[in-house]
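In the laboratory, one determines a bound structure by crystallizing the protein with its ligand and collecting diffraction data. In a computational setting the workflow is compressed into a single prediction: the sequence and the ligand go in, and a structural description comes out. We illustrate the idea with zinc ion.
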Amino acid sequence: MKNLGLEQEVYKYIDDHKEKFLEASDKLWDYAELQFVEHQSAALLSGLLEEAGFQVERGLAGMETCFVGTFGQGKPVIGILGEYDALTGLSQKADVAEKCALIPGGAGHGCGHNAFGASTVFAAIAVKKFMEEKGLKGTVKYFGCPAEEVGGGKAFMVRAGLFDGVDAAMCWHPWSYNGYLRTGSLANVNITIKFHGIGAHAGATPHLGRSALDAVELTNVGVNYLREHIVPGARVHYAYLNAGGKNPNVVQPEAEASYIIRAPKMAQVEEILERVKKIAQGAALMTETTTEHKVVAMYSEYLANDTICNCFYRHLQEVIPNTTYTEEEKAYAHQFKMTVSPSQMDTFRDQLKELTAGNPNYDVDALFDDKDIMDILVPSIHMYASSDVGNVSWVVPTSHFGVVIDAVGTPAHSWQRVAQGKSSIAHKGMIHATKVLAMSCLDFFVNPTLADQAKEDWKKELAGRTYKSLLADDLKPGPQG
Ligand SMILES: [Zn+2]
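The predicted complex, in structure-token form:
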């Protein structure tokens, strides 16, 4: 494939201009803003794009912190997806290898979306620079995607048609290994179920009351019986949003619970969802209450794209094996490796064994014993959780890859990931990701036939299925409850 010998020029440009973006990543880490209120983070990232000559539109798809930056015109149109939301309760002091909140009860970047956000913007800017320099035709679009962790912002962006006309979309994510994502993730739907009953004095007139709280409890009992009869890999989680009140001497007239139904495929989730709704109706019948429900978020399963993954893999092979870590960095990572529980470490070990099964190049036990930073490249990695990148993959050929940004065994959504988020190891990972992403995007401008190939792969992967939004047309994005 012709690539105009771009790699070395692009990598050098990224190395020479990284400081501003590493600073941006550290600032996002400081902001640690939650879903739908990532105001400073969105302003910082969209500002960087604007400063670099992108045309920026803000406040899209009903979300103040959603933005799109565009450069160029015509086909192909290549999208880069960026995330920048943090997680509740994960505030942690940087570089401290024990659990120690920076702000008690505060939020933290436990999924590394600070590095994710800043490096994707950097990649988009590098792509623009070389499109101009090499006279490459087409459009690069940066999608600032709010609320990945809770709320599924991309489902609302898909509903708003923001991805219409995009030929391919790409991103990366901090990961336990380096590699492209060929399989996963799990589909899920978040539904709230509310019951309305009749309040009464629990001692004097309980016969006049109809308890909404009882209805929620009976729904939970019903779902417990359901769990035996759903497909393997499916999970049903719940939380109380409103237990009615704090006084047991009142028959609670209102109560509400939130359910997440998760399964390998959205079609399976939909089936289970219908059964959960029936259980809620049954609970309402038993308690003489009424019930209503609302789907508030949805995450489709991810459909990988071979054409895009092949681009990622080619550039991962150029970037990852050339990484070196200093003795100081290894010692830093070692302290964090020591904080990971043996069962968590075993889980990662088993996952890597599964991913490399039959490949004699990977001695997984030795790797886990010897390494403090898992700097290896695994061809194809798997997502064990859910991501709203999945929703985009149903409407546009889409893929993402993983890059290591911290010590071996660091779990996602952990204080350890937050603590290491400003380290030189995180910065290195972020630059690796920027290089792979920028080059993969440029591949599509150098060889526009890749967009046609990606579309063919995408059609094969869809196999006649189409994306179905479960969000009501009038549902507003935002914290639910
Ligand atoms: Zn994440």
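Residues 111, 113, 148, 173 surround zinc ion (CB under 6 Å). Keep in mind that any predicted model is a hypothesis to be tested, not a measurement.
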